[in-house]
């Protein structure tokens, strides 16, 4: 609980408490501690929390889950609405081009236009870099004429409730259930109170919801249902790219080549059906132009400076990228290149380490689904801690992946 408190605190009320250098390091170490302690506590438990008898308090547990969930969801919705008023989604993209860009993708798609054309704003042009699952769900908002952020909130709430509904099967008290159901809403409240722009300018709750879906699938058996969340995540916030081979190798080791082949085939088919055939096949250069533009965006972001010359995006107290700006000698492009190489190296080492620990302990009663969950959070903590374009809203993803881990840990174990 201390490590989790440090993590959420340094993203909200304690943000930059220890300056530009120590703050991201302490938050990073807190994230590592969360993963390591969870690994020691529950990774080797076949059932970390004993299951309750089916009839034992199941009705009361269900009532507590539903009541706390709906109260939390409604209270946060009220605060979220105020944020939407404070940060209008309509605009020329000068403050943030996230939602204006999404609107252009969706409106073009619904009107029959090719969505992957340059996004023209007042004074500058953005090349299309979003994969389909970052914008396709907002067709729902456009058709119903509602704010895009409500769709993101809904996609966050649905898998969250599915995760919470599983708590009724655990042999824990009603108080612990209520506390665990309330935790994600407490996290959201802290973001709203201390960094409203994180939710006001962006729609990061939708990728978080898709990752929740991926987390739930770690226990599933059918190849299609294993592949579906992989496709959804891969075509949205695809930061898990280095963790994915570890996941597929683990499926191979645990279930055999036939199962991993089916999962891979379904995944390839999903990517082809959602992205390659309808969009990429019409202009193969879109993907590579998007990658090149993303590289240019990183250079531009490092040049956004305060009056004192400090780069705005690197001094948010969340990322180690500031170390490369301040301590690596050379031109800005040299500093950025070093940060990219270090980021790539850290992600690779982390992925290899996750698989190594699996391989070493696979015959010692390792709980595979829990280990993969902890490994996913660990990988994302590393990924974003050294990421070279560290927008504040991105750090919500590894933070919220703490929730399903805590749902597997008995906070008040029975004697």
Number of strands: 2
In percent, how much strand structure appears in the residues? under 5%
Supply the number of structural domains.
1
Shape: globular
Strand order, sheet with most strands: 1-2
Approximately how much helix is present in the residues?
55-70%
Radius of gyration: 21 Å
Structural class: mainly alpha
Number of DSSP helices? 18
Mean pLDDT score: 93
Query: What is the succession of H and E elements?
Result: HHHHEEHHHHHHHHHHHHHH
Low-confidence stretches: none
| Biggest sheet features | 2 strands, antiparallel
Structure notes:
- The protein has 415 residues and is an all-alpha fold.
- The chain has one domain (2-406).
- It is 64% helix and 1% strand.
- The chain has 18 helices and two strands.
- The protein has helices at residues 2-11, 19-42, 58-86, 98-110, 139-144, 148-165, 174-194, 196-200, 205-217, 223-234, 243-255, 257-276, 285-302, 321-327, 332-361, 368-385, 396-400, 402-406, and strands at residues 119-120, 125-126.
- Strands 1-2 form a two-stranded antiparallel ribbon.
- Helix 10 (223-234) crosses helix 12.
- The radius of gyration is 21 Å and the shape is globular.
- The mean pLDDT is 93.
Please sum up the structure shown:
With 415 residues, this protein is mostly helical. It has helices spanning 2-11, 19-42, 58-86, 98-110, 139-144, 148-165, 174-194, 196-200, 205-217, 223-234, 243-255, 257-276, 285-302, 321-327, 332-361, 368-385, 396-400, 402-406; strands at 119-120, 125-126.
């Amino acid at each position: 609980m201390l490590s989790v408190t440090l993590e959420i605190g340094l993203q909200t009320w304690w943000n930059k408490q220890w300056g530009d250098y120590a703050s991201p390091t302490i938050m990073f170490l807190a994230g590592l501690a969360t993963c390591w302690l969870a690994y020691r506590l529950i990774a080797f438990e076949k059932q970390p929390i004993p299951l309750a008898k089916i009839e034992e308090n199941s009705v009361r547990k269900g009532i507590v889950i539903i009541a706390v969930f709906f109260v939390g969801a409604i209270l946060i919705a009220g605060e979220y609405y105020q944020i939407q008023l404070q940060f209008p989604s309509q605009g020329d993209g000068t403050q943030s081009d996230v939602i204006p860009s999404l609107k252009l993708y969706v409106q073009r798609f619904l009107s029959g236009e090719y969505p992957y054309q340059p996004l023209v704003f007042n004074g500058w042009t953005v090349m299309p870099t979003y994969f389909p699952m970052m914008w396709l769900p907002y067709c729902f908002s456009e058709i119903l004429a509602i704010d895009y952020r409500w769709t993101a909130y809904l996609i966050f709430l649905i898998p969250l409730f599915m995760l919470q509904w599983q708590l009724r099967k655990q042999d824990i008290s009603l108080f612990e259930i209520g506390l665990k159901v309330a935790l994600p809403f407490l996290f959201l409240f802290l973001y709203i109170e201390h960094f409203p722009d994180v939710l006001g300018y962006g729609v990061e709750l939708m990728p978080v919801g898709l990752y929740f879906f991926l987390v739930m699938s770690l226990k599933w058996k059918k190849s299609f249902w294993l592949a579906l969340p992989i496709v959804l995540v891969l075509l949205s916030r695809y930061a898990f790219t280095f963790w994915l081979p570890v996941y597929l190798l683990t499926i191979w080791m645990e279930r055999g080549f036939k199962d991993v082949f089916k999962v891979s085939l379904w995944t390839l088919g999903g990517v082809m059906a959602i992205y390659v055939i309808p969009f990429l096949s019409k202009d193969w250069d879109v993907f590579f132009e998007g990658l090149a533009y993303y590289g240019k965006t990183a250079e531009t972001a490092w040049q956004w400076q305060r009056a004192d010359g400090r780069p705005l995006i690197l001094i948010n107290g969340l990322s180690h990228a500031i170390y490369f700006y301040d301590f690596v000698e050379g031109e800005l492009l040299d500093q950025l290149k070093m940060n990219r190489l270090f980021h790539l190296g850290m992600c690779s080492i982390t992925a290899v380490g996750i698989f190594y620990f699996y391989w070493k302990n696979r015959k010692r009663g390792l709980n595979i689904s829990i280990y993969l969950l902890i490994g996913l959070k660990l990988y994302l903590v590393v990924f974003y801690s050294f990421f070279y374009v560290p927008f504040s809203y991105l750090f919500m993803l590894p933070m919220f992946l703490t929730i399903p881990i805590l749902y597997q840990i008995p906070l008040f174990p029975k004697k």
